Structure formats: C-alpha cells, structure tokens
Automatic annotation (TrEMBL):
Pfam families assigned: SET (PF00856)
Organism name: Eutreptiella gymnastica
Tree of life domain: Eukaryota
Protein name according to UniProt: SET domain-containing protein
Domain SET: 22-207
InterPro entries: SET_dom, SET_dom_sf, SET_SmydA-8, TPR-like_helical_dom_sf
PANTHER family, per the entry: SET AND MYND DOMAIN CONTAINING, ARTHROPOD-SPECIFIC, MEMBER 4, ISOFORM A (PTHR46455)
C-alpha cells in the first residue's frame, strides 16, 4: 500500500514510536515528509488525538536573571526580539534524548549565505560563548530556533509558555484545514472540523481569523517571514477565489487568478501561463497578464484596508462614514468578491454592532445592515463552505440579525454556525445553548436539520 507513490512501510519505520496512537499513522507524502495522517475515518467533532508536550518553554525570565539578561541582550543585538532566546536556557537543561528528538523535528532550510541565517548563527555563536551554554553547538541551536519557528504552540495559563509536541509537530499547516487545534493547559488536542478519510493528511492552520480571508499572495506574505516556508496546500496552488476582481474589458467582478504549476511536486490542472487572469463572464472570457492590470492600485487598497482597520497597532476606528466610503471604493475598483471588499463589509457591520451595543441612536437601519449581512454570508458560503471561518462569521451575523428583529434570518445564520462551533466550544457553552434555542424557535426545517450536524 502507498500514499502519493511512497510506500507506507517506509514512512512508518522512521516514526514507529509515534504510531502507538491508534488514530494516527505517520507517512511520507508528496507534499510533506513525515506527515501525521488519519489511521481511520473521522467525523466532524471527533477528537483525533491529544498529546502532552515534549518540552515546555516559559517566555519569562527565570531565577538566573543574569543569564536571561545576557540572552536578551544577544537577541536584541541580532534583531530577534527581547525574549526570543530564552527558550535556549530550557533547551540546555533538557536530557540528551529530548534534545535529539527535538532536533529531528521539521525545520526550514535557510540559505547559509542569506541574511536570516547569518543573523541566527551570529546570535547562537554569541550564546555558546557564555559559560552556561558552551557545551552546545551553534549549528544545533540554529536548527532548534528554526524548529520553534514552525512547530511551537502557545500554551499554559494566559499563554505564558510555548511548547513542542512530537506528534503534533507532524500535523501539517493548511489554509483550508481539516482539524481544529485547542489547548487545555499544556495538553494539545486536535478535533475534526471536516469529515476525514483514512490516510488523509491531518492539517490545521498556523494563521487564523482575518488572515485566512486574504488572497494567496497576502497569506504568503504573512507566512514567509514568520515561518520561513511557502504554503503549497490545495487552496494556495489552486484558483485564488478571494482575489477575484473586475475585468478591465467588461467590468464583470469575477475575473479570476490561477497560475498552474507553481510547485513542481504538487499536481495542478493546466500548464504555466503568461495570462493567469481570466474573466469568467462567458460573453467576455478575456485573459490578462499581470502587467496589463493595475495591480499596484489593488495593493494600495489592500494596504489601506489592513493598516486602517485590521492592524493591531492601528487601534479601533469608529468612523462608520469613512468605512462606508472605503467599502464603496473597494467595490468600485476591485469588485464585491475581492477579500478587501469582504473585510470592509465586515468592518461596517462590526461598527454598526458596536454602535447598537453602545446605545447610539444613529446606527445603520435594518434595510442597510441585513443585505450587507446576507452579502457577507454568501461570500463565505462560496469561498469557505464548512469551515471555522464561515461558522464564526455566521455566529456574528446571526446575533446582528437578531438585534435588528430579523429572527428567521438569524436562525438561518446560527444553523450554519452551530456544527463547527460545537466542536470548538462544546455543546454546553452558553452561546451554543442560545443559538440552538433561536434555531428551535425561529428556524425552518432546513435550518434545524443543518444545525443538528455533529450534535
């Protein structure tokens, strides 16, 4: 038996110690070496596995304050952030067996002539010059730090620690994951948020919330500096539906970007092309090169939307009139299917929700809010069906519809949210109970049937 042409026995032999979990088999795949795959079928809501950490890494200074002060100074000199090297202290205290197991984790392969590698190796050489760490190899420390970049999880009370999980490290990143990763103290748990077939690769997302709304181009800009790898999940190598724009010829907003063959080892439909943009209006169908489009304007609009409303450094913008103008501009220049327009629809609705909650009399009326709500829900239904992103936005929109007296619409939104939010929050969560009550009271039979999935 083989997966992606690689014999299962070959992959199992190397990681046999992890196959003690009956739910998991570690396989080599065409995309990822040593990937955790399902050993059986899983339904939505099932726990795939739980795991205790191989090592826990507090992010604060420990008792040997002077040592941590030196690590902090080295990190700041290297431009790595104040507490970035603190975990080396805890790594140095681990057993040789644990160190060896950690260094077997996947890590990105940096160019030794590149600026990132030189920054890391300089910092690690400075660390091993300290008497407390002179038994460590600087190359091993570079590998260890890169292991952390792609494998560590925030954990503990108030996320004051990070941790490494041996089996968890084999769960692959995807921008359309089939698992949800949650923490209970330092115990990690993966639950199925899609139906998973035996031998499917188990995946979860390293990025979340609004970043998953974005185009492949923008997601890669987030991932590359943070994780040092380029995602090649099916969403990233397929047509970029969240980046659809207006065709310059006919103004239809369904012009789609798709470049086949981006990654040599991932099969795609079609061959590389000089015209990756295609208008999906059957009467037009024109194809475009990048340089024939005003992609500079697209980037300016995206940057303005993100920096104004979705950058944590920007603070909270409460001007609904400006948000409305920004939405109109996005619709005009990019079209209603572009993720920047979707972000601005959400922004306008979120500001309206805040205004209502704060008792402002001039909040947007139902005839404005409800069509925008249905528009955003439709965007998620076609771009993110059956995902945690769709569930979260459906929950928000259901509450907003209720605030405007649209109880049947709210029940329809809640019915979309419930199956996956039960996986996240469990069935006795107060918000789950409230949504179920709303569906029972105001939902039609279709809504009630959908809401009962994974119940």
């Amino acid at each position: 038996m083989a997966l992606n042409g690689v014999p299962m026995q070959k992959a199992k032999a190397k990681w046999a110690k992890l196959d003690a979990n009956p739910n998991i088999i570690v396989l080599e795949t065409r995309i990822v070496d040593n990937a955790a795959c399902a050993a059986r079928d899983f339904s939505i809501g099932e726990t795939v596995f739980q795991e205790e950490p191989l090592i826990v890494l507090p992010r604060q200074k420990g008792e040997e304050v002077e040592v941590f002060n030196k690590l902090e100074q080295i990190a700041l000199t290297a431009g790595l952030g104040g507490n970035y090297l603190f975990s080396i202290y805890h790594f140095s205290k681990a057993t040789e067996e644990t160190k060896g197991r950690i260094l077997e984790f996947f890590c990105p392969d940096l160019d030794k002539e590149g600026a990132d590698y030189k920054r890391y190796i300089a910092a690690c050489k400075a660390v091993v010059a300290l008497p407390q760490f002179n038994n460590l190899d600087p190359e091993d420390l570079v590998r260890y730090l890169l292991v952390l970049r792609t494998n560590q999880h925030a954990t503990g009370r108030e996320l004051e620690c990070s941790a490494l999980y041996e089996l968890g490290s084999k769960v692959t990143h995807s921008c359309e994951p089939n698992c949800l990763c949650t923490m209970n103290g330092t115990t990690i748990e993966y639950r199925a948020i899609r139906n998973i077939k035996k031998h499917d690769m188990l995946t979860f997302s390293y990025i979340s919330a609004f970043d998953l709304w974005k185009s492949t181009l923008e997601r890669r800009r987030i991932m590359a500096p943070a994780r040092f790898f380029e995602c090649c999940c099916s969403r990233c190598v397929g047509p970029d539906y969240t980046r659809r724009m207006r065709c310059p010829e006919c103004k239809d907003p369904r012009m789609l970007y798709y470049m086949p063959g981006q990654v040599s080892f991932v099969p795609t439909v079609g061959e590389k092309t000089e015209t990756p943009w295609t208008c999906k209006n059957e009467k037009c169908g024109k194809k475009w090169r990048d340089d024939e489009l005003n992609l500079g304007l697209e980037q300016k609009i995206v940057s303005a939307v993100i920096s104004t409303y979705f950058d944590v450094q920007a603070g909270t913008i409460q001007d609904r009139a400006t948000a409305k103008q920004m939405l109109q501009y996005c619709d005009q220049e990019l079209g209603p299917y572009h993720f920047a327009s979707a972000l601005m629809v959400y922004t306008q609705l979120a500001l309206t929700h805040s205004a209502i909650k704060n008792g402002h009399a001039k909040a947007e009326p139902p005839e404005v809010v409800l069509p925008l709500s249905e528009r955003l829900m439709y965007w998620f239904c076609i771009n993110f069906p059956g995902t945690m992103e769709e569930a979260n936005i459906a929950s928000f929109l259901g509450g907003l519809a209720q605030l405007h007296g649209a109880y049947k619409l709210g029940a329809r939104f809640f019915s979309t949210a419930l199956p996956l939010l039960r996986v996240h929050w469990k069935t006795d969560h107060p918000h789950i109970v409230d949504m179920e009550a709303a569906v029972d009271l105001h939902g039609d039979e279709k809504a009630k049937k959908h809401a009962a999935i994974a119940k």
